[in-house]
Each structure stands twice: as structure tokens, then as C-alpha cells.
Specification:
The complex is a heterodimer.
Chain A (H helix, E strand, L loop, with lengths): L10 H11 L1 H11 L20 H24 L5 H27 L19 H22 L6 H24 L15
Chain B lengths: L4 H13 L5 H5 L14 H26 L4 H27 L21 H23 L5 H25 L16
Helix pairs in contact in B: 1-5, 3-4, 3-5, 4-6, 5-6
Classes of the chains: A mainly alpha, B mainly alpha.
């Protein structure tokens, strides 16, 4: 079984990822890598992120849980991929970490307590590059479904736009993994995560 | 956060000045789309804006495909995206009809002739800029739409446009797949 714990990530891979993400994202990555650590505040407090309600905090927390799952999947799969797939996975991992960081801040602004990442995730037993990319595609679809369902439930317009911007990124990720897997990369006119 | 570098910015400016330049004027005058007086609510107005964006985008795809500058493989992909844009138009038209508005434009869509299309790179650059404009329209509407069903529809179409952008970028620079999703947040 592939362990999804980011804490299990080889140190060489983490160093490489830290370099690619830049110093500003390093703290964010630590957050993702340590399931038992408390979420940290961003280094850019001057940003006026939207304020949500308690219900919206719960909704955002559910989205955060899916982001943690995706981060775990990318953390486990990236070192096992090679070539273009490895470069894509590394970049997407960085973007998922930034999504989680943004969600944490939104939850805190709404007065909620961000959930913590689990110590490990059941990611199945992917053995080949194709199986690893299938795992990552599944993680993206899981997120797309959640974001599509969440956006209409958000009452804050600004919050809705922020979450929609994350949804659009997840849709891009899914298209590229489908392309890498030799599948139709954009099979439907309406993207629901059930493609 | 900008996407696509300076070449795309140039294309985007060209599109803003030409191919999609009429969008703002069209959106500011919903009467031009035959919006019924009784259906002039906020959601209907947003639907009109989105429909205008989709029609412009669809016209851009038609122009690119008619230019004959795409190779067979790229043309097949682009044709698929164009078909999905027509589905988006159909979905938005249905929603407008349900709200008692006439979704048909009273004036024809202006031709998209501002950007020369002599190479495949020109064509893909134009489509990337057009898709970016569509994403911007949907992100803007997301904050203004009230009906949850419409919000969801707009979200699903936004995600589709985002996929088109990424795949067009992958066709443009296949050696740099990671660059096809360059930012963590798709913003206007």
C-alpha cells in the first residue's frame, strides 16, 4: 500500500520540492507534511480574503479534507514518476498546497477551526506510472465534484469567486492527467468531476 | 497572476482591441440581445453577459478553423472544443428562455478580424486569449449570480473553459506540460 503521509516523503524529494516552490511556500509545505501540526497563518496578512459564515467554514473544511487527500496522493506519487509526469506532478503538488493554505485562512476568517491532515491515507496499491497517474486523476475528480457542489452553497460572492478559481485549477489538472493517460482530455462540455 | 507570458499578453491585448472588443459594449446593453422587460433581473443580465462571451468565443473558434492554419491533429482537438462552446451557448440560451428572455442577438456578431492568422501559433494564441476572456467573464459572474442552479452551471462551464485553456497551451508548447497549468488560482 502506498503511504499517503507527507511525513514519509524522502528528504531529497522534499528538498527538491522546496527549491521549486521557493522559500515562501516552505512553511506551507511543512504544514502539509505534518499532519499533527497546527495550521499556520500566511506570511501575507495584508490580503483581504473574504469572510464566510460558520456554515461556510464547515463547507470549506470539507474541501480542505479533499485537498489533504490530494496532497498526500501527490506527495506519495511524485517521487515515483519520471520525466514530464514527474514535473507536472511536482508543480501540481505545489498548487494543491497553496489551495490548502488558502482554505485554512478562509476557515479561520470565518471563525472556524481548520481540520488537520490525517496521519496517513489509503491510496491503494498503484504499481505503474499509469496507475499512479490514475490515482492523481481520481484525486482531482474527487476535488472537482466537491468544489462544484460547494460553490452554489457559498453566500459570500467573493468567497464563491475564490473557490471557483480553485475549481478551475483542479479542472486544468484533471485535463492534463487525462492527456497523459491517453484519454480524451476534455470529454464533456460541463465539468462535474464524474467524467 | 498573469498566464502565458508576454506573447500571450500581446495576443490578449490584440483580442481585447478586436475579436472580443465588442463584448463590453454588448454586455452593457442587454437590450441589444432582446432581453424581455420582465426578465431583466440580475441573473438574466448575467446570463446575457455570459452568452455574449460565449458567442464571441465561438466566433473566434469558427474564424480559426476557417483560416486553415491548424494541422490535422490540432484541428481535431480545436473542433472538439468548438463543439463544447456551442453546448455552452445552448445551455445558457435555455436558462434565458426559462426566464422569459429572448436569447437571440438582434445584431450579428462582429467579425473577429483584428488579429492576423497566418500560422498555427497565431491561431492558438488567439484562442488562448479568447478562452482567458471567457474565464474572466465566468469568474465575474460567479460573484453576481443568485440562483444556485445557475451558479453551478457557471462553475461547470468555467471549469470547461479552464480545461480548454490548458489543452490549447499544451498544444502550443507540448514540451512544457507543466506550463499548461501555470498558477494555483485561475484569476481574471
Amino acid at each position: 500500500m502506498v503511504s499517503g503521509s507527507a511525513a514519509d516523503e524522502p528528504s531529497a524529494s522534499r528538498r527538491s520540492l522546496l527549491v521549486s516552490l521557493g522559500a515562501g511556500a516552505a512553511g506551507v509545505l511543512r504544514l502539509a507534511g505534518c499532519g499533527s501540526s497546527a495550521p499556520r497563518r500566511s506570511a501575507s496578512p495584508q490580503v483581504n480574503w473574504p469572510v464566510g459564515t460558520a456554515d461556510e467554514a464547515d463547507l470549506l473544511n470539507a474541501l480542505l479534507g479533499n485537498e489533504y487527500f490530494a496532497i498526500a496522493a501527490y506527495t506519495a506519487a511524485t517521487p515515483l514518476l519520471t520525466g514530464a509526469a514527474s514535473r507536472v506532478a511536482r508543480q501540481f503538488l505545489g498548487q494543491e498546497v497553496l489551495h490548502a493554505d488558502r482554505l485554512i485562512h478562509l476557515i479561520q476568517k470565518a471563525g472556524g477551526a481548520p481540520q488537520r491532515a490525517q496521519a496517513s491515507y489509503d491510496l491503494g496499491q498503484p504499481g505503474s506510472a499509469g496507475q499512479l497517474m490514475t490515482l492523481l486523476l481520481a484525486a482531482e475528480h474527487r476535488q472537482i465534484r466537491a468544489y462544484v457542489q460547494a460553490v452554489p452553497q457559498l453566500t459570500s460572492a467573493q468567497l464563491r469567486s475564490t473557490v471557483a478559481s480553485i475549481l478551475a485549477t483542479q479542472a486544468r489538472h484533471a485535463a492534463l492527467w487525462r492527456l497523459q493517460l491517453g484519454q480524451r482530455p476534455a470529454p464533456t462540455a460541463l465539468v462535474t468531476g464524474d467524467e | 497572476m498573469s498566464e502565458g507570458g508576454s506573447a500571450s499578453l500581446i495576443n490578449r491585448r490584440a483580442v481585447l482591441g478586436g475579436a472580443l472588443g465588442g463584448l463590453a459594449a454588448t454586455a452593457a446593453a442587454p437590450g441589444a440581445w432582446g432581453l424581455a422587460a420582465g426578465a431583466s433581473g440580475g441573473d438574466s443580465k448575467q446570463l446575457v453577459v455570459l452568452l455574449g462571451a460565449e458567442r464571441r468565443l465561438s466566433a473566434t473558434y469558427r474564424r480559426v478553423l476557417a483560416a486553415g492554419v491548424l494541422n490535422v491533429v490540432v484541428a481535431a482537438e480545436v473542433s472538439g472544443f468548438a463543439a463544447q462552446e456551442r453546448e455552452h451557448i445552448g445551455a445558457l440560451e435555455r436558462e434565458l428562455l426559462l426566464r422569459g428572455a429572448n436569447p437571440q442577438p438582434q445584431a450579428p456578431i462582429p467579425p473577429t478580424t483584428a488579429v492576423p492568422l497566418e500560422t498555427q501559433a497565431d491561431a492558438l494564441g488567439l484562442l488562448l486569449a479568447a478562452e482567458n476572456m471567457a474565464e474572466t467573464a465566468y469568474l465575474g459572474a460567479m460573484a453576481k449570480l443568485q440562483n444556485p442552479g445557475l451558479v453551478r452551471l457557471a462553475a461547470e462551464i468555467l471549469a470547461s473553459e479552464a480545461q480548454h485553456w490548458t489543452l490549447l497551451r499544451a498544444l502550443q508548447t507540448p514540451q512544457d506540460l507543466a506550463g499548461a497549468s501555470p498558477v494555483a488560482f485561475v484569476t481574471p
